[in-house]
## 1
Amino acid sequence: MTSVQTQPAAAETTKPGPLLAVADLAVSFATADGNVQAVDGLSLTIHPRQTFALVGESGCGKSVTALAILQLIPQPPGRIERGSILLDGRDLLRLSEKQMLKVRGKDIAMIFQEPTTSLNPVYTVGDQIVEAILLHQDVNNKEAAEIAIAAMHEVGIPNPKQRLRAYPHQFSGGMRQRVMIAMALACQPKLLLADEPTTALDVTIQAQILELLKKLKRERGMAVMLITHDLGVVAENADVVCVMYAGRVVEYANVFDLFAKSHHPYTRGLLASIPKLGETKHRLTTVDTVVNDPQEYKKLPEYHKGVVPWWPTLPPPDDVAPSSGGDAYVLHEIAPNHWVGCWRTAYVAQHPSPRPDIAFRRDARPGVAR
Ligand SMILES: Nc1ncnc2c1ncn2[C@@H]1O[C@H](COP(=O)(O)OP(=O)(O)OP(=O)(O)O)[C@@H](O)[C@H]1O
Ligand SMILES: [Mg+2]
């Protein structure tokens, strides 16, 4: 894996290697309408204790990325076309299903976007948590039940002992979400993939769940991949942000750089489209108004040298030089630790960038209480 060179002043100084390193991942689905390229050349790293946010519009490939990490892509119709997914240096794409069973839940757990995916309505909540524990830990039924009660208590479910015997439909939406988190956390994973964990919840419960994740992260040293389209949640919680569009990374930076110095017009469009308190506008800025404005592309540093942000609906620059694999897109490090999806122009081809890898954590900044 490529290493981080110069960290921003605020970043952590002692950098262990990444916990997860995804390189050039491509996933497609064969559908009646043809091939859908869900993820196309995605690279990212997640470091221990980091909150890594994956953002982008519906259908851009966020869930597929998470499912690919856990090897849960249905094949067929899905196909992992290329790439590697290293967990502590071990390529998950090369593991057998039997080996993956040990990774799922134990090393990496997931809170699914669809709660129905993880909770079976015909079994009690307790049975389901206990089963997950028995699968991964060398304990008996009684000990597993105790761990389950402790996990439910930890996520703030009142009367966990009694609630163990309840069925999923007897829980409110927020409590069901907590059950899912309890189930995911009962085995103490190193990495939690949280796919829109709060979208279906009201803001108060949403804040409670995010606080809970923060607490667990702090206490257990777990890393979190937070999939969301809520930029407010990103601003409050993320260390590193990866913005995706049409299966590709368009921007990748630490959370402060991304919000203060966004370089890709799509990211600027996303940020500009959030209504701000106290601002009177006759019309909301939409993402489209920004990405369709040619002037926005010229704002990129080194544009004059031939570095142009990539965008699928725009014609490529004249000197685009596709790679031997035919790819005209590349992730370019436009500033230290700040990557932008660019056209592979002659200049970009001559100045290759390392793959994105940022060890930054906001709580590791000097003077910030952990
Ligand atoms: N099982 C499948 N069969 C066919 N196409 C699929 C399948 N799963 C995902 N896709 C396609 O892959 C693309 C990426 O989907 P994905 O679920 O990752 O989007 P997402 O970014 O998670 O969106 P959302 O914010 O709506 O959850 C979409 O075009 C989707 O239609
Ligand atoms: Mg999704």
## 2
Amino acid sequence: MRKALAMLAALVTVTATATGAVAAPAAAAAAGPELITKTRNTGKYVAFTFDDGPSPTYTPQLLDVLRRNNVKAVFCLVGDMADWNVPLIKRIVSEGHTLCNHSMHHSDMETLTPDQIRADIKQTADTIRRAVPGAQIPYFRAPYGHWGASPAVAAGLGYKNLSWTLMPGDWELPGTDELVRRIREGITETGVITLHDAGGDRSQTVAAMDRLLPQLAAEGWKFDLPA
Ligand SMILES: [Zn+2]
């Protein structure tokens, strides 16, 4: 009986290992260039990042909220949005925010070859720099978090690969109250939070930031860039 239990325990261990193998893609990615998931400083710091813009509707509202609260953020721009929103990119940069390359067409990097990824990242950067010549674009972020071969390619082009610790699902339009609740529940020291300023109705995102930023500042949170 004791032996049977030992065998059962071994079986359970094997099963657990097999289940753990689900994490393999992340482990494989970790073997390549680092995916950044923390702020520059340690302590009660958090970084806000906004993807898929710029949007002529929501990005100006978001920039107003950030400016009122003296918060600098990262904007992960999509080339298809960048090429017709030149003044907004100028404004993002002139107000002290940091740019991130989020691909030309919001493509799934897992479907592209390294050469295609390289061409896409370069085309996106060229598009952004037509708006702001010489713009610094220190980060790359793969759409959907589907990194594929992109971390090595982006690193080779001089980018830091920007991941996140919390993506509260603002695209689900859960309501401003719920969005605020999700961020408050998920916020962690040195965390990187991903929201969206384009790609749909982002009024809840803007409203959530408008409510949250003063609260977080009052609670001693400081706003930082990703490492
Ligand atoms: Zn995106």
## 3
Amino acid sequence: MPDLDFDGHNTVRGTHGLHAFAAKCPPQVVAHALRYYSRPGDTVLDPMVGSGTTLVQARIMGRNALGYDFDPLACLVSRVKSHPLSDGPIENAYEDIARRARQDLDALRKRKTSEAVRRRALPPEFPNRDYWFDSRVSRALALLSFHIRSLDASEAVREFMWVALSSLVLARTSVANARDIVHSRHHHWTHKEAPDVITTFQNRVGRMRKQMEEFRRLCAEADPAKVEARLGDARSLRLPDESVDLVFTSPPYTTALDYPRAHFLAIPWLQEALGISLSAYLARGEEYIGSERGRLGPKFAIDSSLLDMCLATNVLTRIGATSARQANLTQRYLLDMRKAIRVMTRVLRSGRHAVLVVCPSHVRSMNIPTHDLLVELATREGLLLKKRHLRTISARRRVMPYMRSFGRRMSTEYVLVLQKSTRR
Ligand SMILES: C[S@@+](CC[C@H](N)C(=O)[O-])C[C@H]1O[C@@H](n2cnc3c(N)ncnc32)[C@H](O)[C@@H]1O
């Protein structure tokens, strides 16, 4: 069995490290799956693509790839990371944005300014804005956002700048009054001095340019491939049957990570780019697979369509004995994952593989063997388990949710290799 731990390996080559994202998959795991279960020119699907690791790696290895995510910020980040962009236009654009934003700030400071500048420096309204952002930070973010919007450049360059802006907020050291912001629950933390947002933006773009340069170089070594990131729901993708040569995905966990909550501090500044308001974005929260939100009723009963699945029934009964809500949430997760697996199976060509990277989870101190549950679901849908690798997640490298009531991070995960049977 190959070693899939990759501890000590560089997991941020090229654009892989362009933007922080919770529970990112190590590119080496994707590379392993691409190498063993696809050929150059094949089409790879990641139906829950997150920050686009699959797309970036597929592009580097000359595979066509299609990624979907329910989260518009994830889609934006995936698209920017997986499309090689030349440096000249980025350089012109970011200097322009920084210069204009600085000019506006100077004018505001000297109180010699027009109504138009005052208006563009007004930050968007959202709950607790002044708790999470110093007013000077808000003003600088509003100006950057305005000048990115009014940039005279291609859409690809503008999107690159949106990702840079988002990464000022969603970062270990954020310009927001928050720490550990890549996790779903932020810790409030006030900077000793308000950060210089425009300089941070310039430094950030400087780093991203180097990452993009390396990505361009890596892509040049492979045959050109078509890569696309789309907004979509893994439970109902409109893709033709048998049109995909490999599925690779690391699905969400049961109620462990709340992506909308993890991202909510960046969304207000990118509402136009994402085409969604903060309130609409948060309102979709309960529809994410694995969400712990939503009304589920006070009682729990096993869904009749799961009754012939021994493991699922057993696990749900155990959880239901202590919490109807948790049992309902876990059941909703399983029913959602069954829909997603059904789609994966439908679009996969016969005899080809689906590789799922899955962490066991914990609900109310109970071990939930999510990996085995997904195998049970997949088997019903016509995918057979071929290999099961266990890998250790380096706590230093990957942002994983804390295990409830255990206080430590998830530390192992399974790489499940499933094959679509040829007799369907
Ligand atoms: C564990 S992350 C994937 C991380 C990704 N492999 C990476 O390396 O960045 C799971 C993703 O599933 C997405 N997701 C949740 N529900 C979804 C749905 N119904 N359809 C598509 N994506 C969904 C989340 O938004 C999140 O980005």
## 4
Amino acid sequence: MTGTEDELARQLRLLFIKIAPAIKTPQPKPMNDVSMYIANNQPPAFIYYRKGLCEHQKLLAIVHELTHACLTRPGSGGDEEEYERQEPCSNQAAAVICSTYGISDYRKVMRSLTVPAYRFHGGDPTTIELMIERVGTALEQPGVFPEWANPI
Ligand SMILES: [Zn+2]
């Protein structure tokens, strides 16, 4: 599958319309982190991105958060330590997903937003593959409610 950045933006918009009862459309928020996924104790889950990000940075951040979301059901509470452990996987998976839409500067953009270099290395290959599969498929078929987004 190949596409363009515009197509990625469009697929994301459609996907968030589809999954709105489970995961709300990402919102800006003043914060130090580039973005965050909040699974919540009851649905819906939330995604926030740092206020002031440009459209390009925002797209990358949202893809990143979806890689967490696809392993952490809305309403499941979530676990900060688990997200931290997932970071290398999330970054590598998000870089691959973005590259299928012609975006080749994922790492560069995240590094420029002060994401530390160690968060791009290591990570369980099976988890990376799973993230790519789940988020990639959801973006290719944004009209289909993905199983992983079903609230607990
Ligand atoms: Zn993350």
